[in-house]
Amino acid sequence: MKLSLVVPAFNEEKNLDPLYTEIVNALLPLKEEYEIVFVNDGSTDDTLNVLNGLKAGDKRINVIDLRINSGQSFATMEGFKAAKGEFIVLLDADRQNDPADIPKMMALLNSEYEGVCGWRKNRKDKQVFVVSSRIANFLIRSFFGLRVHDSGCSLRVVKAQYLKDINYFKNFHRYVPIILHLKKVNLREMQVNHRWRSEGESKYSIFKSVKVLKELFYLRFVYKP
Known about the structure:
Blueprint: E1 3-9, H1 13-27, E2 34-41, H2 47-57, E3 61-66, H3 72-82, E4 87-90, H4 102-107, E5 115-119, H5 127-144, E6 156-159, H6 160-164, H7 176-182, E7 187-191, H8 206-221
Parallel strand pairs: 1-2, 1-4, 2-3, 5-7
Antiparallel strand pairs: 4-6, 5-6
Helix pairs in contact: 1-2, 5-8
């Protein structure tokens, strides 16, 4: 199998049907075998039922159900473990990232670059989140020498072997490009379409930004990839 999409979902019942349709339409030109690994992270709405309904109609869908909310990093890692593809696409379920960008990112992979990270150049979020992200990315460039504009963009395509053996820690999903950089994986970035959230509620808060500095110090001085 060429491609596995890993999609963690927490209380995203209204986004899943349109997201699935967008994924199928976006990947049709690739003509590659793929799977979609949805991870229900202990949702309290109808997310699990919607996912099971999609699975009943499409054998390419795998649904992992975490009965309690375990956090996006744990859900992401469970998706990595289950993925069967040579490459993994990491995609949030909130539909802010556009699946139509996936084939373009795949086209950039070659013998030199084994991972492509999205860059939300025109990010559609509250200004306070945009500013805090720019500060975090400045610190990342300063601490690690990682020359990407948007380390926090959830849309990434990476060779699976580099994701499956990541040394897990809480909130690692925010720092996948840093971890890959520490593992000497050659990365490139691509500008991607970013959209306002139309359904559901954002799980991001400004308080998470306060934790970022501590986590960056952990990555810089303690973490072993």
